[in-house]
Amino acid sequence: MGSYYRARYTGVMSDAWHDDRAKEECGVVGLRAPDGEAARLAFFALFALQHRGQESAGIAVSDGSTVKMHKDMGLVSQVFTEEILQTLPGDMAIGHNRYSTSGSSVLRNAQPIYCTSTSGEIAVAHNGNLINARELRKELEEQGEKFDTTADSEVIARLLVINMGKGVDTAVEEVMRRVKGAYSVIVLTPRRIIGFRDPNGVRPLVAGRLGDSFMLASESCAFGPINAVVEREIAPGEMAVIDENGIRYHQAHKAEKPSMCMFEFIYFARPDSVMRGTSLYVARERMGEELAREQPAEADLVIPVPDSGIPAAIGFSRVAGLPFEEGMMKSRYIHRTFIQPDQRMREMGVRMKLTPIIEKIRGKRLVVVDDSIVRATTTRQIVKMLFDSGALEVHVRITAPPIKFPCFYGIDMASKGELAAAKWSVEEIREHLGATSLGYLSIDGVKNAVGGGKDGFCMACFDGKYPIAVPENLSKLAFEDPPDVGAIGVVKRGQLTLIDLD
Asked: CA-to-CA distance for 262 and 457, rounded, in angstroms?
């Protein structure tokens, strides 16, 4: 078919700095740049979305007749060099950052996913998680479809391939009719870019102008670095098509109850992004303000867990009338590495990433503000580190309500038995952390901080009310307790060995 595909397996990779924060699946971008530099612009947009996934990265381009692609394991800056970008000429490009919540962390599951159809080659990038992927995959295999990956994203790609001959709009409509779950998808064909969002709008997708052309991305923060301008969000159930004639929108599926993931506002999205008309930095400041009203503490100082806790800590200090200081410094150069740490390094855990500023915290009663507690292991290490550094008291304050239920829509919280708040009371979690006190922001407090009304969000990980019905076999597995493998261990995912500091 004249296609070009290049990828390489780079051996065993260790993620020595893995913590117990919730992980989002990925970020996606698609753009048209008639100067032939689409891949370069996609690179910088993906770089801005690096926080959404650090396992793999990929870019697919089209020159109007042929789709070419390069993808590999690692960060965007590790996967793409100047030499590689020069081999990807074209006016259109899509890109993907991945953190796997479905399918093993191996190169074959990296995205975009390449397929051929009756209408030519396509590449598909998907953010989210399907809850009926297993059933659809089995059905498609029985019809003769051959799958190259174990990722649920390939189900979307194969459904598109089967129906693309009926026209773009019909193909997307058929995908939305068949698949269930959370998805923001960007597709590249030889002559157009197609983006669409699930009918509940769980995962984000925004559209904007790039010079005289157009662009799609998971977050608005991807637009600024390439001098693009956000114009609107893709509505739930809506699709957008970018080609030489501009951009057009089509409601491919009736919108269901709006259920955007609240964790985008609490933690996942970059604080300089805007979602539903709300600055996430401002929303997180307001979360800290609400937290100070709901969960006050007698203390000398408010410090954040960097970087995600900074806006909320500022808001908390403002309402509490306490000084704000940076009590810990985060190393911003610790990422994935090919050097496997020894047992002693793994046991240091959070100290590899955070360094206490002892002069600021010794002899002080501290309020420590963070965004969430999932398994509680990282927070426990932070509390111990602060006491070891001379803190008199450590009052932990969390801007997310207690996470009690697993997520099925693209967040790495798949088992209830892994969640601290599902197993223990707040007091029991406090004892486990070794903190002086522990306070969470309420569900109403989070909604008040985000604004824009109290409806329209998925809060299932907090209240167990799933907006998209979950199949019984999937929910049964997720609500079972996982085997106890200890606080520190090696997790094997396919061919890759990842060091898990949980």
From this structure: 6
d(CA 410, CA 27): 11
CA 85, CA 92: separation in Å to the nearest integer?
13
For residues 300 and 448, is the Cβ–Cβ distance under 8 A? Answer: no
- Is 0.90 topped by the overall pTM? no
What single string gives the DSSP state of each residue in 222-279?
GTGGGT-EEEEEPPTTEEEEEETTEEEEEE-S---S--EETHIIIIIS-TT-EETTEE
Determine the residue type at 445.
Answer: G
Residues 52, 54, 56, 61: is their CA dihedral positive or negative? positive
| Alpha carbons 227 and 95: distance in angstroms, whole number | 17
Judgement on whether residues 77 and 113 belong to the same structural domain of the protein: yes
CA 245 to chain centre: 32
Active site residues: 26
Mean pLDDT by 10 residues, the chain (502 residues): 36 41 75 93 97 93 94 94 96 90 62 81 93 93 88 91 92 96 96 97 97 97 97 98 97 96 94 95 98 98 95 98 96 59 61 90 98 93 96 98 92 79 97 98 95 82 93 66 35 28 26
Specify the number of domains making up the chain: 2
Vertex 501 angle, CA 369 and 498, to 5°: 130
Long-range interactions of 74-83: CB distance < 8 A, separation 24+ = 74/10, 74/13, 74/336, 75/50, 75/335, 75/336, 76/43, 76/46, 76/47, 76/50, 77/47, 78/336, 80/43
Pair 221, 303 in one domain: no
446 shares a domain with 316: yes
Q: How far from the centroid of its chain's Cα atoms is residue 378's Cα? A: 19
Residues 246 and 296 occupy one common structural domain: no
What Å distances lie between residue 393 and 169, 298, 362, 384, 482, CA to CA? 59, 10, 10, 11, 34
Asked whether the CA dihedral 426, 445, 309, 321 is positive or negative, the reply is: negative
318 φ/ψ angles, rounded to the nearest 5 degrees: -65, -50
Contact assessment for residue 327 and residue 301, using Cβ atoms and an 8 Å cutoff: yes
- Residue 380 contacts by C-beta under 8 Å, 6 or more apart in sequence? 432, 433, 434
DSSP 14: B
CA-nearest of 204, 186, 178, 175 to 24 is 204
Q: Which domain holds residue 447?
A: 278-457
Question: In angstroms, rounded to a whole number, what is the distance separating the alpha carbons of residues 342 and 330?
Answer: 21
368 lies in a domain? Answer: yes
Asked if 68 and 54 count as a contact pair (C-beta separation under 8 A), the reply is no
**Domain contains 476:** no
Longest dimension (CA), the chain: 70
Could you tell me if 129 and 99 are in contact, meaning their C-beta atoms sit under 8 angstroms apart? no
CB 103 within 8 A of CB 111: no
